[in-house]
Design goal:
Shape: globular
Number of strands: 13
Strand content: 15-25%
Number of helices: 9
Number of domains: 3
CATH architecture of the largest domain: 2-Layer Sandwich
Oligomer: single chain
Distance between the termini: 13 Å
Largest sheet: 7 strands, mixed
Radius of gyration: 20 Å
């Protein structure tokens, strides 16, 4: 891509992630020339006090666009399947937040703090990883570089916003229904049920669809995407993904076994200097990462770092991040920054 002072940008999709992309572009002062916003149907939206006209998506709409940010759709075929090739044909670099291209060997899967150099390998399309994968690899890659990681066991506790606006509304409605009915009855039935189970006052281990080995496809994403991003296909990874009654902010309980011995103090020192990471680890002062504090932030928060009492090279970490920002929109814009910088 030729170096310019301004770049024409398209944002495709105006759900929770698309709206966040518009907000992040403005907040990070991305050098936007013309900004176009596309969705299935035209309308006007307001984000952060700014009005954006939304146009119906069409192949011709990508004429003259330099960067196309597809907000993506998890769990079904997103708009990128149809329109990404059209955008590339017209000269745009596509950054897709959906799952459609992530495991394509010709498409880089990028987290800038981990594998920014992979951006150079793109052939028009770059994939944004799954939100849970992004926060985990940002936290683990600095440890992997120092001590090597041979095994990861992770349980994610994922917020309702990870399933989109409709899931957030379901949680909100369920909370209201329970409050109206008192605590004697915690079984409610929202009028607009989007998730497979009630979420208010509940958790359930079901994100995505059940596939190979009775794992969900969300769990397999953590395995396959981590291997690809960290260039470490031999790491043994097992995951359980859980939906929790939180609006925004995913948490992860992560267990690792390292190749070389490393102390908890050494890990804390490594992460204190790691790009994109905030170490929040003072358990005696009740200081540790929580989703309510991560919401609206772009950093990955890590705490509760401790050695396994029985396994020599075993370590626990607690990792929290805003799934709409670093887990999606911010990471996509950071990829775009890598594309235009020419220095990565």
């Amino acid at each position: 891509m030729l170096k310019k002072s301004k770049y024409n940008v398209a944002v495709i999709g105006v759900g929770a992630v698309g709206i966040e992309m518009l907000r992040v572009l403005k907040q990070r002062n991305f050098p936007v020339g013309e900004l176009r916003v596309f969705a299935r149907s035209g309308r006007d939206i307001e984000v952060g006090g700014v009005s954006y006209p939304v146009k119906p998506i069409s192949p011709e709409g990508f004429d003259g666009i330099d960067i196309a940010l597809f907000a993506g759709t998890e769990g079904e075929k997103g708009a990128a399947v149809t329109y990404a090739p059209e955008a590339v044909k017209r000269g745009a670099v596509v950054i897709d937040n959906g799952a459609d291209f992530r495991m394509d060997p010709k498409v880089p899967l990028v987290v800038p703090e981990v594998n920014a150099a992979d951006v150079k390998k793109h052939q028009g399309i770059i994939s944004n990883p799954n939100c849970s994968t992004i926060q985990m690899v940002v936290a683990l890659n600095p440890i992997h570089k120092k001590a090597g990681i041979k095994r990861i066991i992770v349980t994610t506790l994922q917020a309702s916003s990870g399933a989109g606006k409709a899931a957030v509304e379901q949680l909100k409605e369920e909370n209201v229904l329970i409050a109206q009915g008192g605590f004697g009855n915690l079984q409610v039935n929202a009028s607009h049920k989007y998730m497979p189970q009630q979420l208010a006052y509940n958790v359930f281990p079901h994100i995505g669809s059940f596939v190979e080995g009775d794992y969900t496809n969300e769990e397999w994403k953590l395995v396959k995407e981590t291997h690809k991003i960290m260039h470490a296909p031999k790491i043994k990874i097992s995951a359980t993904t859980v939906r929790v009654p939180v609006r925004t902010g995913h948490s992860e309980s992560v267990y690792i076994e390292t190749v070389r011995s490393v102390s908890a103090a050494q890990v804390k020192a490594i992460l204190a200097k790691a790009p994109g990471v905030i170490l929040m680890d003072e358990p005696k002062n009740n200081l540790y990462p929580m989703p309510k504090d991560a919401e609206g932030r772009d950093e990955i928060f890590v705490g509760r770092i401790r050695k396994d009492a029985f396994v020599k090279n075993g370590l626990w970490l607690w990792v929290v991040a805003d799934n709409l920002r670093k887990g999606a929109a911010t990471n996509a814009v950071q990829i775009a920054e890598c594309v235009i910088s020419g220095s990565r």
